[in-house]
Design goal:
alpha+beta, eight-stranded mixed beta sheet, 60% helix, transmembrane, membrane, transmembrane helix
């Protein structure tokens, strides 16, 4: 639905308007149509009786905000010089306007008689509305407002030119038909007759000069141009005969900018398509990495199960063989200490069978010791392997995090990062649990060995006592034999 509005504007006591909407309700303020002081003072003196015959047309674009969002408006308006109510201050005005919302004057810019006549009718209708206001609200003798403008209604014009243009001559704005809010430049085009005013407006529309300026003024007064220059030296003023060359230069600039913008938009679209493809491809890759991650964790659980079994076997081996080791060491040591004081080879006091048994126990104990140390070494290697597996999984986590950030631009970062943190926490708990388990089992083995040592110590003491008794008996018999001799 095309939205447009037209009506009256002026400054009885501050800026006021009376509006008629086309296409529906328009909740946008009209303050942007008010002339700033440095522009309003360019109007002819209100004391000049001919000022009512010197219109100042303005084509302008503005960005207007409302509760419903931002709208881009294009307006063609006309201003005449007057005085405020109960004031003789110059620089105020009365006039009329026609404004379109988020549209452009498409057909009015076409180079054909029909477009020219329609634009001519539009400008004539604006002059008629302004004249209507002058006749009803302004004292003709003093050129001063005597009544307010606010609250007044605007009747539909008999020509219906505003409604016709809204229905037939507009087109939606494109990205290259409007600059940003920062564009505040002003262009003034001085003409020599009213027909040139119509031609100038049409040429500005055709060459899209309004894209480069916020306001473009059209008039047929040398006085207005002089006042513009006095009050604002940054305003650019050109004469209608040079407008064609000026328009050509700006048109080339605009078209080059348009081509650049179109190219940029295409690159952005291409980049967007590429990004979507990357997201799709990497979504599959991340799912594969996720599965690999889970497989690694399953393998880690299996390895921990194997370590549990090895620890149980080690504990069992220690339980079975610790008595042999301690028995062999205790018997040999204590036997040597007890027999050391006797003359001759201590082997004489121990039977050959006992001696062979002790030697066998000693050799077996050494072998079992080697096996136990080897088993413990394997368990340590297993723990190193678990740590290496954990490190590998953390590296995989880092790869997934990197892919999430770089390839997906943060789309899956939150989920992957949380998943990685959770897995990292589980791995830490798993490794700590394994360490605690190993420590507990070692404590159990140590306790078991100590218990065995205590029991074997008692048994060894009995054996030593028996051996000592045999030695003493043998000594007594030896002494008795010597005595008889």
């Amino acid at each position: 639905m095309v939205l447009a509005r037209y009506g009256l504007m002026g400054c009885p006591t501050g800026f006021q308007t009376a509006v008629r909407n086309i296409g529906g309700k328009i909740d946008l303020e009209l303050g942007h149509l008010d002339l700033p002081n440095d522009l309003a003072v360019a109007l002819p003196s209100p004391d000049d009786s001919s000022s009512h015959n010197i219109p100042l047309f303005c084509l302008q674009r503005n960005i207007v905000s409302s509760l419903e969002g931002v709208s881009r408006t294009t307006a063609l308006s006309v201003y005449f010089s007057t005085k405020q109510k109960e004031s003789y201050r110059s620089g105020t005005f009365y006039g009329a306007f026609f404004e379109i919302i988020n549209q452009q004057f498409n057909k009015l810019a076409e180079d054909n008689p029909s477009s020219y006549e329609m634009l001519k009718d539009l400008m004539q209708e604006l002059l008629s509305l302004a004249r209507l206001q002058f006749n009803k609200l302004i004292d003709k003798n003093t050129n001063t407002y005597h009544s307010f403008l606010d609250g007044r209604s605007v009747e539909m014009t008999t020509s219906g030119v505003f409604e016709k243009i809204a229905q037939e001559s507009l087109a939606p704005l494109t990205v290259m038909d409007f600059q940003g809010r920062e564009n505040t430049k002003v262009l003034v085009i001085q003409c020599s007759k009213s027909t040139e005013l119509i031609q100038a407006v049409q040429e500005v529309l055709a060459n899209k000069l309004i894209v480069s300026y916020q306001r473009i003024f059209f008039h047929c007064s040398e006085e207005i141009s002089s006042k513009f220059l006095i009050k604002n030296k940054d305003i650019r003023i050109i004469h209608f005969p040079t407008l064609d060359n000026f328009s050509t230069i700006l048109k080339d600039i605009t078209e080059n900018s348009s081509d650049t913008a179109v190219s940029l938009i295409q690159q952005i679209k291409k980049g967007k398509d590429t990004l979507q493809k990357i997201i799709k491809d990497n979504e599959h890759s991340i799912m594969e990495l996720h599965q690999q991650y889970n497989q690694k964790i399953d393998n880690l659980h299996k390895q921990l199960g194997e370590k549990d079994r090895n620890i149980i076997e080690l504990q069992k081996g220690n339980s079975e063989n610790s008595d042999l080791i301690n028995f062999a060491q205790a018997v040999i040591t204590q036997a040597k200490e007890k027999i050391q004081g006797h003359t001759g080879n201590y082997a004489r006091f121990i039977s050959r069978d006992d001696y062979e048994n002790i030697r066998s126990i000693e050799e077996r104990g050494l072998k079992v010791s080697q096996n136990i140390y080897s088993a413990i070494g394997k368990q340590e290697e297993g723990l190193v392997a678990v740590r290496q597996t954990t490190k590998t999984l953390l590296m995989i986590q880092s790869v997934i995090w990197f892919l999430s950030v770089v390839a997906l631009g943060g789309v899956f970062f939150f989920l992957i990062d949380n998943f990685g943190r959770d897995q990292n926490r589980k791995l830490g708990e798993l490794e700590q649990s394994f360490k605690d388990y190993v420590s507990t089992e070692i404590d159990k083995v140590t306790t078991g060995v100590n218990n065995h040592l205590t029991a074997l110590s008692r048994q060894n003491q009995i054996t030593v006592d028996a051996t000592e008794k045999r030695v003493n008996t043998f000594s007594d018999k030896e002494k008795e034999t010597k005595g008889k001799k």
